[in-house]
Amino acid sequence: MIIYFTSTGNCEYVSKRIAERTHDYTVSMIESNKNKQFEFHLEKQEPLGIVIPTYFWGLPTFVEDYMSQIKITSENNNPYIYIITTYGTTPGYSAGYLEEYITDINLEVSFKASVKMPDDWTVRFDLSDPEKISKQILEADKQINNIIPRIVNKESGNYVKREIPRFISNMARGPYDKGRKTSHLHVENNCTGCGICANNCPIDAIELIDNRPHWKTEYCVMCLRCLHHCSTFSIQYDNKTQNHGQYIHPKI
What we know:
- By secondary structure, the protein is an alpha/beta fold.
- The protein folds into two domains: 2-171, 3-Layer(aba) Sandwich (Rossmann fold); 175-237, Alpha-Beta Plaits.
- The chain contains nine helices and twelve strands.
- It has helices spanning 10-22, 29-34, 61-67, 94-104, 130-152, 166-169, 173-179, 196-200, 225-229; strands at residues 2-4, 26-28, 39-42, 48-53, 71-74, 81-87, 111-116, 157-159, 185-187, 206-209, 212-215, 235-237.
- A six-stranded parallel β-sheet has the order 2-1-4-6-7-8, with helices on both faces.
- Strand 1 (2-4), helix 1 (10-22) and strand 2 (26-28) form a beta-alpha-beta unit.
- Helix 1 (10-22) runs parallel beside helix 5.
- It is globular and about 55 Å long.
- The protein starts with a strand and ends in a 15-residue tail after the last strand.
């Protein structure tokens, strides 16, 4: 079983690539959360993979909430567990934070690795160049190809690149929480009221009022899922995203 969280398809793509080679199946945290499914059972010799993105050198709040509720049982006393974290500039300590949740349920992580992919935090990063994105995805595929045999062979070790110590990564939590305020998000006049944003929000933070999206919570995950899936690119973050394009992994 491979559990993943994704906003624009990066982690879903990584999960499905691994699942193809390991003959495994994937579970979306978002769908699992909607169905209130937090308990999972691993059959004998069944591994557990968790694939998550890096947000501000750490975990998305959605992943934190989800992992605080998860329960894993296994027919094997020591199941093979691996973590893959995707990132744009650095994975920070995201894999380490996730490992702590696994330790809290009395299980042990055997393998950790990272994959550098297009960074969909377009508040800062420009994803308007398709050629640049294609090159980044090709490089990511090479990294995934190197990781998969290690998982197939159930290797152990920490292969997270450019990892940042926990005490430094902790300092990014304040900026993340400030950035999660939904007051940063607004809707421009080309909105059609289609509701894609509301349907795609992982925490149901958006509602349509008079065919216009409104954020009903003060904070959200700030995954920008609404911005990237908007059919008219009418959702923006302050004045910082208008020229940085939208992104959804092309193979999802």
